[in-house]
Amino acid sequence: MVCAAIGDRRLLLVCDTFEGVVGAAPLVGEILARCPGTSVLATSRTPLRLLAEHLQPVEPLAAPAARELFIERAAAARPGIDLSGSLHLVDEICARVQGVPLALELAAARVAHLGLEDLLKRLGLQLEILTGGPVDDEARHRTIEATIAWSYSLLGETAREALERLAVFDGWTLAAACAVLGRDPLPDMSALVDQSLTVAPPPTDAHGRYRMLDAVREFGAARLVESGDEDSARDRHAEFFLGAAETAATAIRQTGQRGAHREASADLGNLRLAFRRFTDSGRGAEALRLATSLWMFWLWEGGLSEGRAWLRTAIAFTGDADPALAARARWGAGWLAYHQGDYAEARIHASELRRLAEAGGAVERRNALTLRGMIALADRRALEASALLSEAYAVARGLAGEPWLVAISTLNDGAGLTHSGHLVEAARRFSTARDMFAELGDETYRARALRHLAAVRLLSGDLDGATRVLEDSLAIVREADDRWGLAETLEGQAHVAALTGDPRRAGALIAIASLLRRSLGVAPHPFDAILAARHLGPLRGTEVFEAGWREGMDDPRIP
């Protein structure tokens, strides 16, 4: 009857909110097949799955359009309002509701009752604040919760359960979803994506994560609490990411380390949730395992302060931890403090690590000797530092199945030998360490070994050799996007510039390196700081060096 009524006429048939009658999709397909002059525009939260269908997803608004919509709707809610002096708050609100048009309109309506700062604070609970839509609009558009509930009501039982359990994530992969759901997540994930309750990653995104808008997560989390399954879901989530962190602890020291770091970085929100779950539920051993696994990740992430806070919390929380785990925790905590220049706290961890090593094995003894040796180097006690680091090197050489510890001990021994005046032997250590890290696939520390080798060549008067080695290091850190390694390499190049009579370039390079260090929250390693005092000390304060410094600070591009 419908097809007969349309006939051959050119017609645009608009079908709004089609998700409520999606079973009628075959009728639309029949109309398109029998009425060639007809086009159908259907708005729907789920695809119609017709051969002739061309999907046009409606994405959240980008920043300029989101700001414009918010200001327009705020002016309608509160005539005469002037937000021109508070655009930063407007942009924060738009970002907080993730550019969703309905959320923007509901948030803007609240300007009639709230200041922008109060509104922004209350957006932590979006379902409570994003209410009060027009009474002449459909009921499901008057609050953000009603809109989500409408889509939720269209799901099957297992998809509803999936939505609730997946609300524990801050973005997830299929593998992570499988761990929490306990089954293949793809059928339910497809339903959630089709109902616009979950956003799928781009097909070409190697580190893609499915995600929910914050309001959907809040809705799902509330339903999860009502279901009585919250503890189970959050425990499974935390245990999955504990395993991921322990895997990453090894992966970031070998071939593919940058990919492993990017994976961990993409899941940082989930790792934070897991740590909070362990501490909140009194699972101190798991909290300590998680914090300990990530200490080296924090070095390259630039989150040393957060990593230290995790370890302090976990160490204080767990008084009866396994001695080997407690020793690893002190080892990581000591290094994070050390690399921020907090040698007082590093000494506390070194002292505790030394005590634990007395009842531990060779690894604990090697770690305790190394941390003590590096603290001695920071105190400029070069001979004592060299003796401790050489002893740690000897212990490491006897370890079976610990090639990375042997390689790093070789590098550290070279550092001690350098500052105790044994340059030939130090150069051998650095060359050996470089080759060992290359074999392991650890490009981060291969570049560091090259920088140490360049330092020895500088001290030996081989400026050309030092320049070539630093260029090799620069190529590695640039390819890996290693900001810490870049800072150290630029500092090495600054030393070369100082010794070749170019104080202006030396100043510019040091300024750029300082900016990089500031962004990461790391202090110069004592190995490098000692050399900087020797090579750059006479130049600091001179007009030419300071002019270069200002240039570097004002234009922080890598030369």
Give short descriptive properties of this protein.
elongated; 68% helix; 559 residues; two-stranded parallel ribbon; 2 strands; mainly alpha
Report on this structure:
- The chain has 559 residues and is mainly alpha-helical.
- Among the domains are: 2-42, no CATH class; 63-147; 451-559.
- 68% of the residues lie in helices and 2% in strands.
- The chain contains 30 helices and 2 strands.
- It has a two-stranded parallel sheet.
- Helix 10 (174-181) packs across helix 13 (230-251), helix 17 (295-301) packs antiparallel against helix 18 and helix 28 crosses helix 30.
- The radius of gyration is 30 Å and the shape is elongated.
Average predicted confidence as pLDDT: 89
Indicate the low-confidence ranges by residue numbers.
133-141
As a whole number of angstroms, the C-alpha radius of gyration is: 30 Å
Query: What is the count of β-strands?
Result: 2
The neighbouring-strand order within the major sheet is 1-2
> Which outline best applies?
elongated
Short characterization:
The protein is mainly α. Helix content is about 70%, strand content about 0%.
